[in-house]
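Dear colleagues,

As part of the handover before I leave the project, I'm documenting each prediction I ran so the next person doesn't have to rerun anything. This entry is a single chain, and its sequence is reproduced below.
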Amino acid sequence: MVTQTVEAIYDGKVLRPKKRLAIKPNTPVHLTIRAVKAKAKKKKSALKVIESLKVDAPADWAENIEAYLQAKKRAHE
């Protein structure tokens, strides 16, 4: 008899093992279910997110945003 401990995802209907099991399809098994606490995602600060965006903009973009927005609006007219 094979004993395995595997991680699986429950999709609302069936359990889906993350790795292939060492048993043949349609083999009867006994299951013991223990929910695993999801790992918390590390939160990034808003500044870090903004810094990571890689925006291609002029150096004076922040100081002259209105002028750039108006120029873009005129270009679309």
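The mean pLDDT is 85. The beta strands are 8-10, 15-17.

All the best with the project,
I.
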